[in-house]
Amino acid sequence: MPPFPRTARTGGGSSYALPSAQRTGIEAVIRDAIAMDRWLPAPSRVDEITHQLRAYITDAVTALDADTREEALATVREARHRLGLVTGDGYTSAVTYARGLGLVAKELRDLRRGLK
Can you point out the beta strands (E) in 1-116? Predict the structure, then answer.
C-alpha cells in the first residue's frame, strides 16, 4: 500500500493521475494524447486515441487545404507527414506515435480557431 493512500503519491517520487472527470470530444482526445508522457494508458485506449486523432487530422487537413498562409501550409504539411507514418512494433512506439498525432492535432485545432 502506498504511504499516501487514495493519492497519486507513492512516496518514491511523483506520478501523474488523470482527473476522474469524464471528458468528451476531440478536446479530451487531444489532451489525453499530449499527456501520454505523464500517464500510460491501456493499449486499447492508445489505439482508440490514435484512430480518433487520425480521423480529426484528416478532416482538418481537408478543411485547411485551400488556406495559403505560410503557417497553415507548414502545419498541413506536418499533419500529412504524420498521417503517412505508421506505428512501429510495441507499446512505446504506439504511445509516441499517438502523442505526435495529438501535438499536430492541437496545432490544427488552434489554426482552425484562428480562421473563424
Answer: none
Q: Grid coordinates standing for 51?
A: 484512430
Element (H, E) at 81: helix 70-84
User: Distance between CA 95 and CA 77 in Å, rounded?
Assistant: 22
Number of neighbouring beta carbons within 10 Å of residue 65? 11
Contact 2, 12 (CB under 8 A): no
Residues in the chain with pLDDT < 50? 1, 13-21
Tally of CB atoms within 10 A around 18: 13
Contacts of 42 (CB under 8 A, 6+ apart): none
d(CA 50, CA 44): 10
In the prediction, which pLDDT does 1 show?
A: 46
Burial of 86 (0-12, 13-18, 19+ CB in 10 A): exposed
First-last CA distance in the chain: 51
Give the tens place of pLDDT for each residue, 72-90.
888 899 999 999 888 888 9
